[in-house]
What does this fold into?
Amino acid sequence: MTMPQYELADPPTDAISAIQFAPESLRLLVAAWDKHVYLYDTSEASGRLLNRFEHRAPVLDVCFGEDEDTAYTAGLDYDVRRINLATGEQTVLSSHSAGVRSVLLSRPFNILISASWDSTLHIHHLSSSSPPTTLNLPNKPFSISLTPTKLVVAMAARNLHIYNLSDLVAESAAQGVPPWQRRESSLKFMTRAVACMPNDAGYASSSIEGRVAVEWFDPSPDSQARKYAFKCHRQPSPEGIDIIYPVNALTFHPTYGTFASGGGDGFVALWDGVAKRRIRQYQKYASSVSALAFSADGGRLAVAISPGFEDGREGGLADGKIGVFVRMLGEGEAKGKGAK
It folds into this structure.
């Protein structure tokens, strides 16, 4: 049985770039191109907007900090910021030389990692007032994701680096940190998103060409033989030709290890990556799916939709709806079905 969903009131006024649930509650952070970060309480129908936090430029990513009153943001003002969600106070932790695409917190190592289009990572040691460690990347980063022990960085030119977090916090990190593994993406076209498995075993990545790849960290030949890619988020045209959409968002369920994908076709699908099966696909949304997030307890899936440019039109913001929907998940709704 498919459970109900509700739309959050007071959505952003421009495209949504990122969403994240709090680590323990049903608070939700939303980053948008309207230069604001939004904080919602999603525990009740329609949710409740708790606050908005203005920035100098569009915000590209946001995450909760060490507690639920702290957030970190990244955006086109080149800055990595800390926000006190209770008081609204903002502090710049570091500045890159180009837009900052991603920001993530590793709680086990107490570090904040930012990835910028200047082809660097900043490793912020939150227990220290020292400047962040800067790591140079070979290419522009498009997406990053964390496990309890590893960082995955998906870049331009189909490059992908996997770092051990223990290496990033070592004293020698200031002299540079070689990645634990260097890989070439299994996908032939530009990477749009990467998301790590919650069991620390591997990751999924998606491309602009309607495909998702699933890979494992273990470098052994047997493990690497398990990796695969599949087509998705493709819809037939009236002429019977597949229209291919970008897969904009990926997120893993915290308990079951299944994952959701969201595409430019306006659909969200749930997948069992181990059994290589689609679990279900939800109804079409009114715009492109731009971001996805499961709640910490796995009971809700937040879906952000924003106008995309899938129709090929250029210029300003495309026509379409901007909004955030929260879907209540039934018991076992996101559970894998097992192999065929």
Confidence is low (pLDDT under 50) at residues 312-317. Residues 165-168 form the longest helix (4 residues). The two ends are 21 Å apart (CA to CA). The CA atoms of residues 293 and 302 lie 5 Å apart.
